[in-house]
Write a structure and sequence with these properties.
The protein is an alpha/beta fold. The protein contains three helices and eight strands. The two termini are 16 Å apart.
Length: 165
């Protein structure tokens, strides 16, 4: 009889620690930031792609290597600037929250030849706060704990009745 009581108590105790370990918080469910690459096309006088759309939090990477002519990428209002024109460029800019809008950029040495581009930044979805879990007096943990405690008490009392404790 006692081994059965002990087994019952262990099962109830283990059940009190169960929980949903698979649900993700809203922060974890948010889309991961993306990186979009803008390079120079084969004509050597155009960005490729010349127009991109990203979300706030995403990064635009200006990357080219071994170009015949030196290039750079400079936003018209000074928001970003890849530096002096070069044949090798690896420059990234991340559009943070609150920077949605349209950004026009140029290659300074080749702007008159039409080497221009546009980045459209869409607003990121609003962050939702994690919902608070209300704690009530009739939670399963409390019920299971009270049941387990009652069983332990019954076990002790039962043992004393029979002269074992």
């Amino acid at each position: 009889m006692r081994p059965l009581l002990l087994l019952g108590m262990l099962v109830l105790l283990a059940a009190s620690f169960q929980g949903d370990l698979t649900s993700a918080s809203p922060v974890e469910q948010a889309q991961e930031p993306q990186t979009v690459v803008v390079s120079v096309d084969s004509t050597n006088l155009r960005f490729s792609p010349s127009s991109v759309t990203v979300m706030e939090g995403d990064t635009v990477r200006f990357f080219w290597s071994g170009q015949a002519l030196p290039h750079n990428a400079v936003e018209n209002n000074g928001v970003f600037d890849s530096g002096d024109p070069a044949r090798e460029v690896d420059y990234s800019f991340t559009f943070e929250r609150g920077t949605n809008g349209t950004y026009e950029f140029v290659c300074e040495p080749h702007a008159s030849a039409g080497m221009v581009g546009t980045i459209t930044v869409e607003p990121a979805p609003a962050l939702e706060p994690e919902p608070e879990t209300p704690v009530s007096e009739d939670t399963p943990f409390a019920s299971v704990s009270l049941t387990a405690g009652s069983m332990v008490l019954a076990y002790i009392v039962s043992g004393r009745r029979h002269g074992n404790g």
